[in-house]
Amino acid sequence: MTGDVGPRAVIFDWDGTLVDSAEGTFRSYVFVFDSFGIPYDRSRFAETYSPNWLSTYRAVGLAEEDWPEADRRWLLHFGRESHALLPGAREALSRLESAGKILGLVTSGERERIMVETRALGVADFFAAVVCGDDLPHKKPRPEPLLHALSMLGLRPEDAAYIGDSPEDMHMTRAAGAFAIAVPGAFPNHEALAAAEADARASSLGAAVDLLLERGKERIRSS
To answer: Are residues 143 and 62 in the same domain?
Structure first.
């Protein structure tokens, strides 16, 4: 990370990082796979979960021709779920904004859903750039979504940190050349996240913000 006060931009994942959506995701998968006659429980959730839902479809054996209908059913059910920001999420965004950081969002979720949720939860105005899973041909863990967000902001990868809760987040960030911060969440991917070689790990969003702001102070002290 360059600059006298740490990264100029902090980019976030959405599901599981800022918004509490793990249980809603699980229930929506149960609904969808049951409708196709595919058994699905928490052990299968742990075995097959990926922010790239097409990987989950493939892992549970859903026929590829059924994927578009599965998407429709998943979004229908997920839209009936209630959603809330994770504890400390709004404070984390506010602290970084107050510190002069440029904020962005890079998520695997579909744009229509993400924009509805960010507005409903009152955080849409925090983000100067938003890249969603259906905006580009390639999704996480490829670096293109994060690189596209940084291009929208006119920034280099070394000017940015990314905070996420999945190994795909970390692989994307490291491939892009930004600073990767892992914050374990409620999705069943903690072992894979620990093995993903993040640049830093934090126990919570607040701790991740502390790390970034303290890193900036250390640069000032050493200058």
So the answer is: no
